[in-house]
Amino acid sequence: MELLSGGDIVVRALKDAGIRYLWGYPGGAALHIYDAIFRQEEVHHLLVRHEQAAVHAADGYSRATGEVGTALVTSGPGATNAITGIATAYMDSIPIVVISGQVPSSKIGQDAFQETDMVGVSRPIVKHSFLVTRSEDIAETIARAYYIAKTGRPGPVVVDIPKDITDPSYKVPYIWPKKIALRSYQPSQRGHKGQIKRGVKTLLQAVKPVIYAGGGVIIDNASDLLVDLARQLNFPVTNTLMGLGAFPGSDPQFLGMLGMHGTYEANMAMHEADVIFAVGARFDDRVTNDLDKFCPSAKIIQIDVDPTSISKNIKSDIPIVGTCSSVMAEMISIIKNGKSCVNEEALKDWWLKINTWRHNHGIYTKPRYEPSRGNLIKPQDVIKVLYDVTEGEAYVTSDVGQHQMFAAQYYLFDKPRQWINSGGLGTMGFGLPAAMGVQLAFPEASVACVTGEGSIQMCIQELSTCTQHQLPIKIINLNNAALGMVRQWQDMQYSGRYAQSLYENSLPDFVALTESYGHIGMRVDHIDHLEEKMRECFALKDRVVFLDIRVDPEEHVYPMQIAGGSVRDLWLSKTERS
Amino acid sequence: MKRIISVLMENESGALSRVVGLFSQRGYNIDSLTVAPTEDETLSRLTLTTDSDDRKIEQIIKQLHKLIDTIKVVDLTGGSHLERELMLIKIRAVDSEIRTELQRGAEIFGGNIIDVTPTSFVMEMVGNSDKLDAFLETVADIEDVEVVRSGVLGISRGEKFLRV
Ligand SMILES: Cc1ncc(C[n+]2csc(CCOP(=O)(O)OP(=O)(O)O)c2C)c(N)n1
Ligand SMILES: [Mg+2]
Fold first, then answer.
1. Helical H runs in A66-192?
2. Active-site residue set of A
3. Same domain (yes/no): A342, A253
4. Is A421 in the same domain as A545?
5. What ipTM describes this predicted complex?
6. Is residue A188 one of the residues assigned to a domain?
7. In CATH, what class is B2-79?
8. Whether pLDDT at A436 is above 90
9. How many angstroms does the Cα of residue A502 sit away from the middle of ligand 2?
C-alpha cells in the first residue's frame, strides 16, 4: 500500500474526488498542503488576492457547471476572510468544499498565532463541517465532504486540517474510499407517490394556476422537465431571482421574475391564482411580501428536496418531499398516461387576463421608463444592449443593488446556470470573483459581470487575479455614482436623506485603475456610444475589459413591492401604484 | 405546549454544538437538554424539552433531522411515553423539627437522603418534572437550598425501539 504524508493525501484525495481546480491563498498552517500542490501537476491552484474571492470563485464555478467548487485557505485570518463566501454559498445552496489549515493539534485552544475555531465560526453557515484529527482520516473525510456538499440540498462543507497532520515526515497508507455511505444521512428522495398523484389532480383541476419555480430546479438540473411539464399543462411560469433561466426568459409562457422587483403580471397572477405549484422555491420574504396577505385564494403544491423548506413560511396544502427532477418526471408520466387533461376553457380566460396585465403594465410589452437621451443613459438600456450584443448567450454574474435587479429584469436568460448572482445573502463583491470561476470553467464563453461602482470596489483587487490566470471577463459597471439601491430606499422612505450612500467625488478613475492591472478600460457617457463600445468590449475576446458606463443616478428599480402589502401591491414608477 | 424530543445521533465531536447552535440560531428555546452516549458508544442519545406551538415543533424536528449527524428524531409527546428527571437537593437543616419534617417529606415524595451532616441534608429524587417542582414548593421557605436537576429523560412505552 502506498504511504503518503497528510499534505500529499489532501492533494491526492482532491484528484480522486475529480477536482481539477482550486482557488486559494497560502499561509503558515496550510503550507504543507501548498508544498504538496507544488509537487504535482494534476490539481491546479489559482492564487486569488483575498480569501473571500477564492470562495466566490469556487462558488461561481460550481453555479456554472453544477460541479463542486473548491477553495483552500490558511488558518485564522485566512479562514475568517472565507466566511462571507461560505455564507453566500450556504444561502443559495451551492456545493463547495472549503479546506482550511488549522494550527497544530497540540496548540488548539491555546490562543495560538493565527488560531480561529473555524468549525465553530462557520457552524451556522455550513451544511456540515469536519475537524480532521488524524492523517489516516484525511482521505475519508475529504470524500465525505464532497459527497455531502453535492447530494440532497447542496451546500458548503468545511474541512479544517491542523498543520501537524499534514506534516511531510509522517506517512500513512493512502486509501480512497470507493463508496460513501453514512447511516445518518440518506439524501436522495423520490417523492411520495400518493402525494404526487394528488398534486397532479390538483394541477389538472386548476383554473388560475401559476408555476413558481426557484433555484432548486437549476441545482437539480431539472429545467428540461420543468419546460416539458409547463408545456403539457400550458400554465404560466414565473421564476424567482435564483430561478432565472430555469424556464426560458424569452418564452411567451414566461411571466418574468416575481417578488419585490418582479413584474406586474407575475405578481398579479400569483395573487389571483387558485393553484400555485412551487418547484424548488422557498417562499423567501423577497417573494412573499406580507405573509398574512400572501396569495389568499391559492392552494399550494410544493416540491422541495429539503423538508425544512416546506411549510416554513407559507403552509403547503400538498407537500412533496423529493428532488424536483424525480417528482416532475413522475408527474409528466402520470399526465401523459392519464385520461384527464387541463381545463382548457378556464386557461384561455386566465391567459387573456394575464395578457391584459402584460399589456397594461408589463415591462416587456413597452418600456416603462423614460428613454435614454444624450448623456443620460438609462441603466435598463445598458442591459438591453448587453443582451443584444451577446445575443442572449453570455454568462452574466452580478453584484448586489439596482444593477442586479436591472440585469435580472432585462437580460432574458433562456438557459439554466447562465445567471449567477448572490440571491440569498445579497453579497456585494460576489460578481467579479464569481465571473472568474465561470470563465475558468468555460474559457471560450462570454462572461459579463454586471456590477455597480459600489460593489465592484469590494473585490476589485481580483483584477490582478484575472491578469495572472488569463481570465478575460467583461465588467459592465453601471456607474450611478451612488449606492443606488440604498439611495432608492432613502428616496422612498427617508425623504431623500442620503445617509452615507454618496461618495463626494472620491471614486477612482476606473479606466486608469483597470489599465494599471494590464487590462482595457473604456468609459461610456453618451447613449450613442453605448452599443459600439459594448461590441468592442466583447470583440476583445482574450482581454479583460472594464466598461465604465455613466448611468442616470436618479433612476429607480420598478416594479417594487410596497412593504407590508400583498405580492401585488406595487410601485410601478415614482408616482404610479398598482 | 411542552414537548419532549428524543434524538439519536452519531457520537462525534461537534454534534452537540450543532444541536445547541441550531436552537439559538433559529430562535427556538430549549428548556432542558440531556445527552450521553448509549450502550453503543458510537451513538449519543439526546433528550430535549421545549415549549413551542405545533408549527414550530414541526420545524424543530425537521431541522434536527437535517443535521448530518442525526440518525433519528422522535417527538415523544406524540405517543405514550415515560419521562423522568433526577434532582439533587442540598438543604440546610439545623433545627431538629425541620430535620424530621424534611425526612418525612422525602419519604412522601420517594426521595432518598444520600448525605447527612449536623447542619444539612443532600437528597436525591427521581420523577417527572411536576413532581420535582411540587417537592421544591414544600421547601420554598427554607433559605439555604441548592438544587441541581438533570433535565428530562424520556423513552416511549411499548414495542417501538429508538435505535439504528
Ligand atoms: C457586503 C454588503 N454590504 C452592504 C450591502 C447593502 N447594500 C445593498 S445594495 C447596496 C448598494 C450597492 O451599490 P452599487 O454596487 O453601486 O449598486 P447600485 O445599487 O448603485 O446599482 C448596498 C450598500 C450589501 N448588499 N452587501
Ligand atoms: Mg452604484
1. 77-91, 118-122, 138-150
2. 51, 113-114, 163, 485
3. yes
4. yes
5. 0.94
6. no
7. alpha beta
8. yes
9. 9
Any idea of the CA torsion for B96, B99, B104, B106, to the nearest 10 degrees?
-170
Pinpoint the residues of chain B covered by CATH 3.30.70.260. Answer: 2-79
Cell of A303: 416540491
The rounded distance, in Å, linking the Cα atoms of B101 and B25 is 46
Whether B13 has its CB under 8 Å from any CB of chain A: the answer is yes
pLDDT at A116 over 90: yes
Integer Cα distance of B156 and B128 in angstroms: 14
Q: What's the pTM value of the predicted model, to 2 decimals?
A: 0.97
Measured in Å, residue A501 CA sits from the centre of ligand 1 at: 9
Distance CA A574, CA A556 (A): 8
CATH topology classification for B82-153 = Alpha-Beta Plaits (3.30.70)
Distance from CA of B128 to the nearest CA of A (A): 31
Ligand 1 contact via A118 beta carbon (within 6 Å)? no
Residue A576 lies in a domain: no
Contact at 8 Å (CB) between A119 and A160? yes
Residue A572 within a domain: no
Segment A294-338, tens digit of pLDDT: 999 999 999 999 999 999 999 999 999 999 999 999 999 999 999
A169 and A55: one domain? Answer: yes
Domain span at residue A225 reads 193-361
Element (H, E) at B84: strand B81-92
Which chain B residues are within 8 Å of A184, Cβ to Cβ?
9-10, 68-71
For ligand 1, whether the C-beta of A484 sits within 6 Å is yes
The verdict on A350 and A222 lying in the same domain is: yes
Contact B18 A185 (CB under 8 A): no
CA dist., res. A249 & res. A271, Å (int): 21
With CB atoms and an 8 Å threshold, state whether B70 touches A307.
Answer: no
**Do residue A148 and residue B69 have CB atoms under 8 angstroms apart?**
no
Which residue intervals of chain B bear CATH 3.30.70.1150?
A: 82-153
pLDDT tens readout for residues A357-384:
999 999 999 999 999 999 999 999 999 9
How many structural domains are present in chain A? 3
Contact (CB<8Å) A128/B25? no
User: Rounded to a whole number, what is the distance in Å from the CA of B46 to chain A's nearest CA?
Assistant: 15
Of the pLDDT bands very low, low, confident and very high (cuts 50, 70, 90), residue A188 is confident
Question: What distance in Å separates residue A111's CA from the closest CA in chain B?
Answer: 19
pLDDT band at B103 (very low <50, low <70, confident <90, very high): very high
Residues contacting B130, CB < 8 A, separation 6+: none
SS3 A47: strand
Contact assessment for residue A510 and residue A477, using Cβ atoms and an 8 Å cutoff: yes
Residue B47 contacts by C-beta under 8 Å, 6 or more apart in sequence?
A: B4, B5, B6, B7, B32, B33, B34, B35, B151, B152, B153, B154
> Which three cell numbers mark A410?
432585462
DSSP one-letter code for A67? S
Residues A157 and A267 in one domain: no
Dist CA B131 CA B120 (whole Å): 22
B20-32 exposure pattern, b = at least 16 Cβ within 10 A, e = fewer: eebbeeeebebeb
DSSP B13: T
Considering the domain boundaries, does residue A367 fall inside one?
no
Find the angle CA(A463)-CA(A466)-CA(A467) to the nearest 5 degrees.
Answer: 95
- Is B103 in CB contact (< 8 Å) with chain A? no
Compare CB distances from B14 to A119, A184, A185 and report the shortest one's residue: A119
What's the grid cell of residue B44?
Answer: 449519543
Please write the tens of the pLDDT for every residue from A126-173: 999 999 999 999 999 999 999 999 999 999 999 999 999 999 999 999
Q: What CATH number is associated with residue A441?
A: 3.40.50.970
Place B78 in a pLDDT band, splitting at 50, 70 and 90.
Answer: confident
The reply to whether A308 and A252 lie within a common domain is: yes
Q: Where are the extended beta strands (E) located within A344-470? A: 395-398, 419-420, 447-452
